[in-house]
Amino acid sequence: MELSLATSIGQIQLDRPVMLASGILGISLDVFNRLYRSGVGAVVTKSLSTEPWEGYPNPTIFSVKGGGWINAVGLSNPGATNFAKMIEPNQDVPIVVSLVGSIPEDFEMMIKQFENCKVTAYELNLSCPHVAKVGLEVGDDPELVKKIVTTAKNTTDVPIIAKVGLGTTHYLNTVSAAIDSGIDAITAINTVRAMAIDVETQRPILSNKFGGLSGTPIKPIALRCVYEISSKHDIPIIGCGGISTWEDAVEFFLAGASAIQLGSAVGDNWIDVFNDINNGILQYMKRKNYSSIKEMVGLAKKQ
Amino acid sequence: MELSLATSIGQIQLDRPVMLASGILGISLDVFNRLYRSGVGAVVTKSLSTEPWEGYPNPTIFSVKGGGWINAVGLSNPGATNFAKMIEPNQDVPIVVSLVGSIPEDFEMMIKQFENCKVTAYELNLSCPHVAKVGLEVGDDPELVKKIVTTAKNTTDVPIIAKVGLGTTHYLNTVSAAIDSGIDAITAINTVRAMAIDVETQRPILSNKFGGLSGTPIKPIALRCVYEISSKHDIPIIGCGGISTWEDAVEFFLAGASAIQLGSAVGDNWIDVFNDINNGILQYMKRKNYSSIKEMVGLAKKQ
Amino acid sequence: MQRNNNHTTIVTIEKVIDETPTVRTLVFSDDVMSNVLPGQFAMVWIPGVNELPMSVMISKESGKAAFTVRKHGPASTGLFNILEGQQIGIRGPYGNSFDLKEGKLLLVGGGTGLVPMMRLLTFVKPADDVTVLIGAKSKDEVFFEDLANNLLENNPHKVIVSTDDGSYGEKGFVTDLVEKLVSKSHFDGVYVCGPEIMMYKTVQSAHSRKMFVQASLERMMKCGVGICGSCCVGEDLVCRDGTVFDGQHLSTNKEFGHFYRNKAGILENY
Amino acid sequence: MQRNNNHTTIVTIEKVIDETPTVRTLVFSDDVMSNVLPGQFAMVWIPGVNELPMSVMISKESGKAAFTVRKHGPASTGLFNILEGQQIGIRGPYGNSFDLKEGKLLLVGGGTGLVPMMRLLTFVKPADDVTVLIGAKSKDEVFFEDLANNLLENNPHKVIVSTDDGSYGEKGFVTDLVEKLVSKSHFDGVYVCGPEIMMYKTVQSAHSRKMFVQASLERMMKCGVGICGSCCVGEDLVCRDGTVFDGQHLSTNKEFGHFYRNKAGILENY
After folding, report:
1. Is there a contact between B83 and B48 (Cβ–Cβ < 8 Å)?
2. Residue range C186-218, pLDDT digits in tens
3. Any idea which architecture D9-94 has in CATH?
4. Residue C20 in contact with residue C143, Cβ under 8 Å?
5. CATH for B7-301, options being 3.20.20.70, 3.40.50.300, 3.40.50.2300, 3.40.50.880
6. Which residues of B are annotated as a binding site for substrate?
């Protein structure tokens, strides 16, 4: 029996199922190459906007005592145009380009910047919990989601993924809207809006006050969302939220995810985490007699 | 300077600011008395329904590797009538009676059962994430919330608290609806819908599949909600979600809560947790020269 | 890294032993569970069926532990029906344990209440004079008699079986035997686990004569960690304060021996 | 319980020392930070202002540590303006440290780049022959000269100051002095921290002569733990792979000495 970590997310083919989540380490092609050598199946870039953004002042990240991180980096990024130039030489790394914007035309403009780049997919970040006008305000509006997805689909043949999160409306409505407009896959979930206050100085720690909670705390919530989406829709899903071990990854596969993303675990365990998880999944597959990831996707729904 | 742990949540006066959250240990008056001796400011009962409920089969609770618990006890309770009889002898313990129902009449009927009981307040559980028809489906419907709160307020002069959580609509709409209908205080937040899957047996662990995530993982989310509510409304708030240390409690005071509730920490640290937190708050108050809880409520909003 | 006892561990059943037509012992490998104290329990998940509290049975082989289960409800029947090679989930151990005295000891067990008694026997000192009472309804429900004798082979000891119908051993309720024994001679420690009425009477018999007596209580449990409150007996939580309680303490508890709570939390009479 | 280095600890500034009109050292008590290795850094939160990476300065008193800060941007000016009795937050230590050779050593520091050099001096062996070069623009920006001499009082050593304008010590760039020294004699280890061009030239001078050389790099940092990517230099992350890099490695890095990234992550020329 040939054992393979390859997976497919609809039309997207990856050699390995563990992706780097958006926002993490994603500003340099040299780093992307290093990550690929370290075992990632694909790199999702920082969310790019039409213009370069500096993001929020520090502190932009906070380590929660009970585990996990709260970040409000504020989508700092060099802008789609600069970024496209930077990754133009890329040949080897499967790159998923993450995009943020407030109107359909933003996404159209940005996708066009990447015409000369090898892009595996675009991921529409519809759910940043700490930046106004381009984050959850977009994802919380299913009509706007439909327009954005439709425009993106009309702009390129490269697969389009929508990244959803827990906002002020039901994320399943966002998922439905994206599917109705032809989305190729769903990434679930983004970070969850949260905050931390320092009791000595009696003030919120992040400069933006609010940030997005990531890491182990949100894993059970993210897993629930993947299970809910896969129970309701026949759409490829990428699980994201607090994954740091191979067991976590397998839980998401069993819930219905065809691939997973992680970010916070890099902060805790550095980039060794990718091959650690790859190896753990392989051992599990051997033990359970699976030859492909696909065989375990969604198994928990059958019980 | 006299140092006091007393706090007031609107008209509700408590000797101590740390309450036992609903669903925890709340079925026996003997236990309530023991908890009061152990330092709780008030006991919130299990959520009572018009009829006795057995709840879900086991497993009803799961300990998350990254911290916290997922439970789907399913609101098992002896029913409001039986419960009212049980607490009738109560003289000493401040008891907050938690109620669940699907229509305003449910709440009216139940409140009337307690006419001969010493009840400090009623807490309307509008946000259980794992029981259909009486949980988030109620809290997610602001019009229904208005009717329920109005009915409850017309049935009794005892203060009424609404407990909100992260559902499929914006919890701040639920808060606004409750305030518009004369609610006396808000408890934020309930557990967050979540799940766990066992990778060996490849099935959801809880018999109900989905449960509510509580404990340390949700603290940063709950703190954010308290801060958001207190920034938008002038309403007494009880903070709830992942509190296990005096620092956590103080964070919630600084965010705008006048009292706090905890439950999961009892599972981790048993009932010593109440006096541990009381003592920690007292030391903090001494160090910061406060004579009352009130002095620190909402301070983080001033920064 | 030490295992967090709240985290579910999956183990595979390696051996199934029929004790009686309705009682089976399921053996599995687990270092933590092989070393629990007498009176401690595990929460046992039968995937797809239920989860229930089980006193942890000893095993002859080191590093192994077991559960001895009698089938009655759906949960225990689910566990009873587990086959060799199947997996269950365990968490714990939870709870306190017996305070084992030295000298003349009386251990009283009924049904699967014998499980903590067998573990307790592994802790007796060679000089202890040990009497074990095994209560059963009839002959075909008697088990662990040989095991008790084996565990006590280096001790002065007696293992006495009583059956309600007299089909084996002495005839009558085991509690009548207890009353007879404690009225005749002083025991330095009396230990009991079994049906609540049996425990109540044993505690009464011993405590009224100022003997040190302990009982390991059983209640419906959901969480096992002091959150759900299902297992409260008066102001005590069996999972956190027990399972083992002193006769002195139990004699002041208004619910022990009289009431239990059903799944909705309503007090019902025994 | 050991402190998780990612958790912010609040400390109170106990003493403020004016080093120059624009450089101050802030002393505080913290066992963890008092024991960091040379090259390691902390993320320092100035409440209400910003958070920035700071190399941890030594203190004369045990159990104490310090930050030496030059005011230029809003963040460093916020730290510079902290008064005695005020609180800051610290997390870390993060990063690797210098590999200290034995024998003839050359330490080169510019401005607050002297901080890890001073800590490195606390690790030299008595037999080491140590030369410290302190580069500054002018006389009133020179600091730590006395401290370096004190730390080396038991060693054969030289502390040489150069100022760009010649107002104190030797006139000229410190990198010219480095070139002169390494061309005259072999050093067993060369260590540099300061402005990137100074580090780049020092690395070039030493590495081209096959001397072991290490530099402690500085980049904008947001997280300090390898998440945000702000501090990448080629494929290296200063926070995780550094701050200390070997000359051998740096000589293959296309960005070192030429480019840095601005807040939006765009490469800009030095």
Report:
1. yes
2. 999 999 999 999 999 999 999 999 999 999 999
3. Beta Barrel (2.40)
4. yes
5. 3.20.20.70
6. 46, 71-75, 125, 190-191
